[in-house]
Structures are given as C-alpha cells and as structure tokens.
Amino acid sequence: MTSTEAGPSTALLTDHYELTMLAGALRDGTANRPCVFEVFARRLPDGRRYGVVAGTERLLDAIRDFRFGPAEIDQLARASVVDEATLSWLADYRFTGDVDGYPEGELYFPGSPILTVRASFAEGVVLETLALSILNHDSAIASAAARMVGAANGRRMIEMGSRRTHEEAAVASARAAYLAGFTATSNLEAARRHGIPTTGTCAHAYTLLHDSEAEAFRSQIEALGVGTTLLVDTYDITEGIRTAVEVAGPELGAVRIDSGDVGPLARQAREQLDSLGARNTRIVVSGDLDEYSIAALRAEPVDAYGVGTSLVTGSGAPTAGMVYKLVEVAGRPVAKRSSHKESRGGWKSAVRRHKDTGTALEEVVFQVGDGRQQPELGEHDRVLPIPLLRAGQRADGVPTLEQSRDRLRSALVSVPWEGLKLSHGEPAIPTTFR
Amino acid sequence: MTSTEAGPSTALLTDHYELTMLAGALRDGTANRPCVFEVFARRLPDGRRYGVVAGTERLLDAIRDFRFGPAEIDQLARASVVDEATLSWLADYRFTGDVDGYPEGELYFPGSPILTVRASFAEGVVLETLALSILNHDSAIASAAARMVGAANGRRMIEMGSRRTHEEAAVASARAAYLAGFTATSNLEAARRHGIPTTGTCAHAYTLLHDSEAEAFRSQIEALGVGTTLLVDTYDITEGIRTAVEVAGPELGAVRIDSGDVGPLARQAREQLDSLGARNTRIVVSGDLDEYSIAALRAEPVDAYGVGTSLVTGSGAPTAGMVYKLVEVAGRPVAKRSSHKESRGGWKSAVRRHKDTGTALEEVVFQVGDGRQQPELGEHDRVLPIPLLRAGQRADGVPTLEQSRDRLRSALVSVPWEGLKLSHGEPAIPTTFR
C-alpha cells in the first residue's frame, strides 16, 4: 500500500477486471444503476457445522481507505488498465452506499447473507476483491479457532502461528483467534493494531545460547521473574523440570513442553512438579496442536495450549469460500443460471429462529424490498444483519472486538449440541429460503 | 505497519518472545555471542517431490525496514513487553550481520539450508518470525504454483486467487505464482509493487447488470476491443458463444468458461467457435482448478487457465513448515536433542550434485567453518547458497524476479522425471548430510 495524504490506500488490492467492468459501465451508462451485491458462502468447509463471521470491522476500515490517490492513478495509467474517463472517476471515488451485514462473531451457514452492499454498480463492483479477501481470510481463521476454543473447554489458548502465514495475515489471524476466544497472541503488531494481549517467553535458542540449561533458566528468571514460563524440553524434560524448579523455586509460573507425545509428558510433568512442591506451576503445551489433539488432551493436566500452524491455516480450511454476487439491479432480482453454481437473486436478509429453550432451529433467509415482509419473530429469534455503513459513513453500534467476542460466546451456547461436535457432519441448523 | 520517517516499519511483525529473549540476553551478556541461525524444512508437505524457494527478496526488504521508530518503541513501552535498556537497544537496531541463502526459484528438499543468518544472538534472534512468515508463505505458494505450471505444459496460466486469501497475502501470492511461471495475475497491487503483468475482463455481474447478454458483450467490446475475453456462461453457454461471435465477429479474442464440467464444455466450445469461423478465438477456463484438474484438461482444447483458490492456499499445503533454528554459538555447533524434532547443529552449506547428463542426483549438506572443506564439484554440480546480505547491506548479484523465474525453469529441467510426477511420493532427490 502506498501512503497518500489521506493515509494508506487499499484501492489497488483489487482485481483488474473490476476496473475494466467499471470502464465499460461508465461508457454505456449502466454504471449508475442501483445495485445490491451480496456476500455469502455456498457451503461450509467439508464437514464443518458452522462458520464464524470475522473481518467486518477490518473491511469497514479498508473501504474508508479505498481511495485512488495520485500514486494509484499513475500506476493504472502507466499500466493502461483503464481509459482517462475512468481514471478521473476513480480519482473522486468515495463509497457512498449502504452496507448491512452479520456482525462479527455471529455464526453463519450456507446461504446466509453475510454482507449486503447497496450502491450504484460502479461503487459496489470495485469492492468485490477487497471484501472477499478480508472476510474469507478472517472468517476461515475464526471458524477454526472457535472449534479449538470449544475443544479446550475453558483452558487458556495462546495464538502463536505468525511464522506459518504471511506476515500481515498473521496480524489478522491473531485478531480472528482472539475474537473466537483465544486468550492472547504472540504477535506484537496485533497488540498495537487491535489491542490484543500478547505473551511469550522463550525459544529453544535461548537455552542453546547459554552454557547450560540452568544458566539459561537463571537468566530468564532474572529478566522476567519467577512467574515466567520455562521451556523444559531442549535436552531432557525430566532433567529440565528438575533444573527449572531448582533455579526458580516452587513459585515457578509455568513450564512449556513443545515436542513429543504431550499427553503422557504432561502427566509426568505434573507428577514431577507436584513432587517438587511446585503444585501451582502450570503446564503449557504446544507443537502442532489442532482442535482434535486439544480435545484429546482434555483429561490431561494441561493448563494452556499454544496453537500455531493449524490456527493460521484454518485447520484444513484456509479460506471460507465466500462469494460476492450481484443479486439485484434497479429493484429487479438477477442471478446466474447456467450451472450448479446457481445463486438466488434479490436483496435478502435473515432471521435465526430458536426454540423456547433458546436452542437455534433454523436460519431463515428472506427477500427484502417493497411489499415483502420479515418473518414474525419469536421471543428468542433475532434478525441477523445490522447496519454497517449508511451513505458511506460508519453506522452507529458497530460492535467492538470485545463485544464480538461476547457475541460468539453466546451464539455458540444456542447451537444444538450435535452442531458443536468436532466430527464431520451437516451444518448445525438448516437454512430455509423464503 | 506504522510509517516512520524512514518509511514503513516491519519491526512489530514479530513474536513477543523474541524481545523477551533479547532482554534476558542483554542483561546477562550473552546477547553479543556470535551466532548462526538456519532456516530449513524438516520435511516437504505430504507427498510433494520438491519445494520452491520464494520470498527471499521480500525478506531482504523487510529486514531493511526492521526499525524500531518512536511509534514502535512507545507501543512496546506501553505494553510493558521489555525493559528500558532493551527499548534503547531496539531504538538503535540495524541488522549488521551476513545472510546467505538459496536464491529464489531454487528447489529445496528436507534439510536444505535455505537461509543462514550470521550475527550476534541479539541481532539474529529478532528476525525469526519475520523470516519465517515470508519464506513459509511465499515458498508454499510458489511450490504449488510450479506443479500447476508443469501440469499446464506451456499453456498460459492466470493467477486470480486474491479474493480467497488475506489482502496482502494476495499480493505476495501473485508474485510467487509469477516466479513459478504463471503468465499474469488479476491483482493490481502486484503490478505496482512487483511489476507483474495483470489481466482480467469481466465477471458475471457485468452480464447481469445489462438488459441482455448481447448488450453486455457489445458494451465490453466497445470498451476493450474485440480482442477481449467474453464470459459466456452466465445463462447458457451455447447461446452465449453464439451471441459472442455475433457481436464481436470471428476476430473475438477469447471466451471464458467459469463453471460446469470444463473439459467437455471446452470441446463443445471449440467446435462451435470453429463452425462459426472464430478459429483463432481462444478458450480460457477457470473455476476451482488445481494441478490435477489442469493436468486432466491437457488433451482438451484449452488455451489458458485461470487459477484461484488452490493457488493461494498452496493446494493443500498452505505453509511450507520451515523453521529458524540456532545452530552455532561462538563457533560451537548447538542443537536441541530431546525428541523426534532433532536438528543438526553447525553452520552449513549445500551442493547439488548431478549426473553427467545434467540430471540432479542428490543434495549434499555439509558443515562450513574452520578446516572443513566443500565437496568437490563436478561439471554440472553447483553450490546452492548465494550471499544475500554482507554487514547488513544487500550483496551484489541478488537475482531479479525475472532471473528467479528463469532459475526455476532450469532447475526443474534437472529434476529426474520421477520427481516431476504430480502423484504423492518421496522427494525427487535425497539429502545427504556430511
């Protein structure tokens, strides 16, 4: 991103074809037709029971920064992407439309209208790639993270996957993981940008740097206090734990085990720590954990999990597969209809219906517009989309990251227990189209 | 990234523990010990025959921008990550060490010393996350892309996956794909930042916007000329092709088919185009292609492939799994040794040995340092690492993106034919440690 006077620009994080479509539409006069674009997922990743919406707030910021400054216009001119008339239209671009969407932390299912953009064709078409990049990435990570948090059943979760994904995706992943209930991240930029707590102590390199494990531990404790976490598996774990307690005393905060069969190792470590009087010293495990191995460790004396690769790669589903489709032109529903990739035309909204007990029953997706009515709401039912932008300006009440975190927690409580299982299966609730 | 006077800073794209290790080492005096850190992959992704190194040049730029300006120092102080002495050390941070590495476009195998950082512990330890984020991401994408390019067997490949990955990962993915032999990308920022050719014409939205397919095609041709690519599968493909040739004439550049069973559809399209006299109109296919479906289309009359999701997600291997390990301290090899995750200590280099015919035989990884000798080189053998940074400054002869593209092309020619198969198997050549 090149910085302009107005700050960094997101305008070129865009596919070439959006601007050529714009050029054509400006030329033939269709550019101003009022349109509705919708973001939805045709299906959940294979076997997943629910998806978690994430990235919406990042998208609102990115739309605010979607400006074609002199640097962007020069680039497009030099590369002959579009004609002069289009460049001059782009130079004045500000999004002035309305956007509604599922709030972050809300669950989604196949066909849920996750984001609805109402704007002229010209204003809406250029946001396709940016909207999808952000929502597909962040939702994929949050969806995987939510399963891990569920599997951890209340134990602390530390996100430490930055090294296994693109350096900027790492920052967004830390945010999505926190949204989904992770306790902290290793990523320092995520603290600056999103206010997420960071944590971390030591790698094996620190022990190897020193002349002995005892010296490394002593040094770390001098720098960070006895409440720190000592990494005990550089040489021999039993020896490492003995040395750790010798050096730190029984007040040692925690030990971390990063390799081997962590279940039995955690049991051994607990016994050894207890026998050394370090009864309050916690055990942190890390090393290629995913939701399944986290669940398998439920019976073991583990106090916290450090999760890396599987988190930032969406645990097998690195993208959410959402699409951005034109569904309405000048009040008329439109849809592609040549193949299995069919879409449902028309501006839509959705309600989640619940039993009297509060358990979710179904996602009802319905058409919005003149003469169409919203389904009646029961006591526990709720309309899912909220206003995000009005005439291009951020709407009141867009939730904070902490509020989105709470929203997900309570949304998951309402999911039928079948839908919370880690095993492959159908979506937790069906989607009904009215 | 916050912009400082010196430009954007990458310094916080870092894990918390790197700075706490630094703080401890500064306090106990080990921070200045001369160290060697090595980046390598313990294994290739499941069943892959080779990996492709990518991201090195992005990493060199990121190391240049690894500066703790006032904004970064403030953030670390506010979050109480490290003490005052460490903050003041960081404020002066400039990397002054030496870096060698495999050039971009070079193949790598398990244990290949892809990057070697020689610096004080303090200077080297803080680069771990940044180096791994960039190399793991870009190499994962380039490795998948190279298989796709091989499967396409000379046909044009267009990268169009931006929407299915983080918005900045999209730019890096476009670069990695181009390095691996893709022809062009849809991503406009990749053109600005890396000089990669972009392409793109139309989405289904453009046809849906207009009152008829014919009007949409006419509009596109007026804007982009008859050499453009018309998307013919919005309603009915046969009808779409007929309309396309009617509107554009037989000089139409190309048609794109984005859905359905593209093999038979391409055959039908070819016959229809030929019968309409549009013998030079090319056929572009897209829609959830990966290396296997590209290979399966080899016998079909397809002129170009558009590849999205599978490219940006590394086709099942979204991260390269490289690690950054301390291997030498003050001339003494060091290695973790508690578990299966063993590492080989010592500063290393590597030679790729070849038969007289030029076919690669093995990767020989050997120790470097006093009294150790490089293996003798045969006519086709070559030392793999090149100098990248010397005393913190970019070394002469770091290849350009175009040179890296050429390098990969010729490296792949040397791979035994077994190693070029798409099917799962062992690495194309074994790694021998001396």
TrEMBL record, chains A, B:
The keyword Ligase applies. Pathway: Cofactor biosynthesis; NAD(+) biosynthesis; nicotinate D-ribonucleotide from nicotinate: step 1/1. It catalyses: 5-phospho-alpha-D-ribose 1-diphosphate + nicotinate + ATP + H2O = nicotinate beta-D-ribonucleotide + ADP + phosphate + diphosphate. One of its GO terms (biological process) is NAD+ biosynthetic process via the salvage pathway. Pfam families: NAPRTase_N (PF17767), QRPTase_C (PF01729). One of its GO terms (molecular function) is nicotinate-nucleotide diphosphorylase (carboxylating) activity. Keywords: Glycosyltransferase, Ligase, Phosphoprotein, Pyridine nucleotide biosynthesis, Transferase. It is an enzyme of class 6 (ligase). Its EC number is 6.3.4.21. Transiently phosphorylated on a His residue during the reaction cycle. Phosphorylation strongly increases the affinity for substrates and increases the rate of nicotinate D-ribonucleotide production. Dephosphorylation regenerates the low-affinity form of the enzyme, leading to product release. Residues 141-309 form the Quinolinate phosphoribosyl transferase C-terminal domain. Residues 12-136 form the Nicotinate phosphoribosyltransferase N-terminal domain. The keyword Phosphoprotein applies. One of its GO terms (cellular component) is cytosol. InterPro entries: Aldolase_TIM, NAPRTase_N, Nic_PRibTrfase-Fam, Nic_PRibTrfase_pncB, Nicotinate_pribotase-like_C, Quinolinate_PRibosylTrfase_C. It comes from the Bacteria. Belongs to the NAPRTase family. PANTHER family: NICOTINATE PHOSPHORIBOSYLTRANSFERASE, NICOTINATE PHOSPHORIBOSYLTRANSFERASE PNCB1. Catalyzes the first step in the biosynthesis of NAD from nicotinic acid, the ATP-dependent synthesis of beta-nicotinate D-ribonucleotide from nicotinate and 5-phospho-D-ribose 1-phosphate. This is Nicotinate phosphoribosyltransferase. It comes from Solihabitans fulvus.
